[in-house]
Amino acid sequence: MPDNAAPLRRAMETIRSLRAELEAARGARRVAVVGAALRAPGGIADRDSYWEALIAGSDLTGPYPADRPGPGPAGRGGYLAGALAFDADFFGISPREARNLDPQHRLLLEVAWEAFEDAAIVPAAAAGSTGVYVGITGQDHRAWAEEDPSPSWLIGNGHCFAAGRLAHTLGLGGPALAIDTACSSSLVAVHQAARALAAGDCDLALAGGVNLVLGPRSTLEIGRTSALSPDGRCRPFDARANGFVRGEGCGVLLLKRLADAERDGDRVLGVIEATGVNHDGRATGFTAPSVAAQTRLIESVLAAAGCTADDVGYLEAHGTGTALGDPIELAAARAALGGSRTWHIGSVKANIGHTEAAAGVLGLLKALLVLEHRTVPPQAAFATLNPRIEEGGGFEVPRRAVPLDAGAGGYAAVSSFGMSGTNAHALLAGHVSPASAVESAGGFPVSAHTAAALRELAARYAAALPDDADGFAAFAHTATHGRTRLREAFWVKADSPGEAREALLALAAGTQDARLQSLTADDALPGPGTARTVAPLPRYPWQRRTFSLRPLS
Description:
The chain is of the alpha/beta class.
């Protein structure tokens, strides 16, 4: 007798096979953030200080730094301290070349190194398979050119050389791209990096962006678009919103396919579930945003991740505080995300200004912190909703820190929109990395490029050393296997936190201690064992000097 059920069984098998392929494709797109580093106004140099400023609702804008060559732009902004200072010797760059090198390129070098250290991944160990994706727009440093420029001027200032120098200096052999889509540059860079990882173009990727304001001309040009706040305050979503203030910053992520990160025992700071990029097309004006384009983009990213609007509990908006942009962005977000539950929205631009090419990645870092702490910070400079923004659709602008309830959706989204019309969006999820117990190897190395940096790093290690046995073992494991051994190096022989701290303080003071053993490049270190753990260690103490083609104030 014929098997009448056979066609149905074959159809079900086909459906199961297609579902498996779809899940495999989605799995390949899931990207882990395994390391991150940043600079932001107000002396912010790590995720902890960033979160402290966000949760306090701080306004970190102020006048143009007086220690920079003038003239500077008028009005307030979110400026970095010491933006012209750089540890050129660490990266093997001569003083002459450092003076010609765009400070944005210098900043990227230091922050990218810190991202590798944060991930406890030695750049040399991943050199051949790491890509570089850098969002960069600013060109202010070009105005500093001498009449007879040095041969190093060209390769120190073109945008393409920002990515190329990172790859060259760190020995990274994957794709290296500089991306300029105006304000969405760094989130587009993250998107490109995620796509490259999914395609197998690289196994690790540095992705981020940088922005510095180094003269008045670009601010005058932006001011002619009526986008800047005349009173120097950025108030996203607020009834008083009248434009943005410019900001400076840098953010770099180290990305890896999630499956690979879990296999390798990486600490995962969060997961990029999906990203997307589109353009406004023929909008009402070349620089005018489009509700339809933004809505389509958010919906397409949700679909790519296999999620719905109800899964999103927080949106880190582009949110520049402009009369035109905020109402359009909220209309699109409400159309794509609106529902019966309450979801929260915010914009870090009220805290640090609009960091332009770095805005997307700094917004993404904020969203990761929201997921990590399960808390939405208060929206700085917000009192009353802009009357041009239609209420309803479930969104809420928090006036105080509020918990990110599980019922509100476990995901966070990030939007970044460029003045050129290129839009980017990302969907993020939290992640809890399983704890891995490691055995103490009876000590750990500490190393730096110079003796002065070594002493400073030893003091930082001593202050950060955990007192419990498990924390001490994790600290020692990370210091041994997650740091590049530099030319000034010592082995700290210690079986307990107390012994290690005493030896480190002796090293910091430049005094002798029997527990300190000088290391050469040929000295072998203990093997990593079968388990891997990543503990937070202090940042490298850069030995910076100021380099400038123009005389300082």
